[in-house]
Specification:
Low-confidence stretches: 1-8
Order of helices and strands: HEEEHEEHEEEEEE
Pfam family, one: Fibrinogen_C
Oligomer: single chain
CATH architecture of the largest domain: Alpha-Beta Complex
Protein name: Ficolin-1-like
Mean pLDDT: 84
Number of strands: 11
Helix content: 25-40%
CATH class of the largest domain: Alpha Beta
CATH superfamily of the largest domain: Gamma Fibrinogen, chain A, domain 1
Structural class: alpha+beta
Number of helices: 3
CATH topology of the largest domain: Gamma Fibrinogen, Chain A, domain 1
Largest sheet: 9 strands, antiparallel
Strand content: 15-25%
Length: 258
């Protein structure tokens, strides 16, 4: 009797082991299926990812249209569908369009040079008239200036600074309302004046070329007006607003309302 129960018990264990073995085989087959499925989906998704990356590489790079939300420093911006160009951002959305501080850059430049811009964004420079037109024609812009001389510091802001296109000879179309500190509005007489350089006199009524004799390009009215931030650096006849002989100047623009 004991031998019978022992035999039955052994057979039961064998059946149990066989069942467990079949279960393990089933689990192994299931794992193998999961592995193959995972590898398939990984290969498929990798292919899709590569296709997306190839497509992204063919798309044009998107550039900001201003310095808003950009850090201080040199960045590329793009206006409408024009070519991207570099600008110097000065925090809080400001684009510097003119900077002078040590006299290293000659501002007695030709018409073409003023249109295209000149100088070094890491040093002294003038942002080209064409670029100024593109930026200020996109939206309303403020213009802030800061000047220094042996007399101290002068600052001011205009709330609607706009430059015309090439056909207008880059007329100073608008400056808006003036908010000044220490000095009065010395750009007012220059509104609606075309830009003039030593080789392109656009001053009304064939008045003498105020940019001659190394005075630099500016929006000169008749009798040359009350200001010229591109005049020779550090001389008695230099940077004018309304005093002469300024030692530094900076002009920067930003979309109005910020």
């Amino acid at each position: 009797m004991f031998q019978f129960y022992t035999l039955v018990s052994c057979e039961a264990r064998e059946i149990n082991l066989a069942t467990k073995h079949r279960g393990s085989e089933h689990q192994l087959m299931h794992c193998e299926f999961d592995k193959n499925s995972t590898e398939y989906y990984l290969r498929r998704n990798e292919h899709k990812l590569n296709e997306c990356l190839k497509l992204a590489a063919t798309l044009p790079k998107r550039f900001p249209t201003s310095c808003l939300n950009l850090t201080s420093g040199i960045h590329e911006i793009q206006i409408r569908k024009g070519n991207p160009f570099q600008v110097l951002c000065d925090g809080d959305g400001w684009i510097i369009i003119q900077r002078r501080f040590n006299g290293s850059q000659d501002f007695n430049k030709s018409w073409e040079e003023y249109v295209n811009g000149f100088g070094d964004l890491n040093g002294e420079f003038f942002m080209g008239l064409e670029k100024q037109h593109l930026v200020t024609s996109l939206k309303k812009h403020d213009m802030h200036f800061k000047l220094t001389s042996i007399r101290g510091v002068s600052m001011g802001k205009y709330d609607n600074f706009r430059i015309g296109n090439a056909a207008s000879l880059y007329t100073l179309q608008s400056i808006g309302k003036f908010y000044g500190f220490q000095y009065e509005n010395n750009l007012e007489r220059h509104v609606n004046q075309k830009f003039t350089t030593y080789d392109r006199n656009n001053i009304p009524n064939d008045y003498k070329n105020c940019a001659a004799n190394g005075m630099g390009g500016w929006w000169y009215p008749e009798y040359c007006g009350d200001s010229n931030l591109n005049a020779p650096f550090g001389k008695d006849s230099g940077i004018v607003w309304p005093w002469r002989g300024g030692t530094s100047s900076i002009m920067k623009i930003r979309q109005h309302g910020y």
